[in-house]
Amino acid sequence: MEPLKEATAIKNEISRVIANTAYQTYEKRLLKEVEEGEVPQHVAVIMDGNRRFAKEFGLTTAEGHIKGKDKLEEVLDWCMDLGIKILTVYAFSTENIHRDVEEVESLMDLFEENFYRLGDDERVHRHGIKVSAIGQRDLLPERVIRAIEYAEERTAGYSNYYYNIATAYGSRQEIIHAIKQIAQRVKEGDLEVDDIDEDVVSTYLYTADFPDPDLILRTSGEERISNFLLWQLAYSELYFTDVYWPGFRKIDFLRAIRSYQFRRRRFGK
Predict the structure, then answer these.
(1) Less Cβ around it within 10 Å: N or C end of the chain?
(2) Residue 48 catalytic?
């Protein structure tokens, strides 16, 4: 190697080592700060930016979604490390169904593979993670529904952690579904109109078994909720970051948790 090229390579390697060391030092300090505070029990995530990440790094859209799936595996670990009991992620909306057919098919392949894998995942069984899919299953291919049922049946008895994957999910549709069920009860005489309150409505939502999210975070720089948990987020803390989902780092996650810890939650009082 020529002396100049060799010197440049050495300089680049030194810079890389320094950067990694600085990152690791900052991550450890941030983790220590977060562990000393109160962590949220339910975190919900709008995973946005797979396609833009893929475009920026010369990947196919399908590869971007695979990177996003891999990142989700990491985030699940981060939640368990901090003792966050419930993770709800927005994986596929009812609006996403109208995307390019090839992209939707590749996503369905990914969902089918991932739910079967979750059902067999040693980590899931070791930690006692209950896997659930929330959304309009009738909009999904039968093969994906079978995979969802497999994961749910294999983890039905667990209660250490809860992992909810919103698939073919839309919050307005969820609320309409709840209203129809409540209206049917009123029609049949099982419920008085005056008895309908927030608790009753919550009972008919897909998330009836869980407390509302303490923290909702969204990646990619967009600052909107996009039809996600509209009823449930009434008093959730919101956090937005401009990092694309596949590039979401542990320090980004810890910053979100720390931001939550700095806020004073009044619940409208």
Answers:
(1) C
(2) yes
Set 48, 121, 164, 214: catalytic member: 48
Domain range list for the chain? 37-171+211-262
The CATH code of domain 37-171+211-262 reads 3.40.1180.10
Residue pair 136/168 in contact (Cβ under 8 Å)? The answer is yes
- Residues ≥6 apart with Cβ < 8 Å to 21: none
- Residues with Cβ within 8 Å of residue 137, at least 6 apart in sequence: 145, 148, 167, 168
How does pLDDT run along the chain (269 residues), one tens digit per residue?
566 655 555 555 555 655 577 778 899 999 999 999 999 999 999 999 999 999 999 999 999 999 999 999 999 999 999 999 999 999 999 999 999 999 999 999 999 999 999 999 999 999 999 999 999 999 999 999 999 999 999 999 999 999 999 999 999 999 999 999 999 999 999 999 999 999 999 999 999 999 999 999 999 999 999 999 999 999 999 999 999 999 999 999 999 999 999 997 777 66
Is 96 a known active-site residue?
Answer: yes
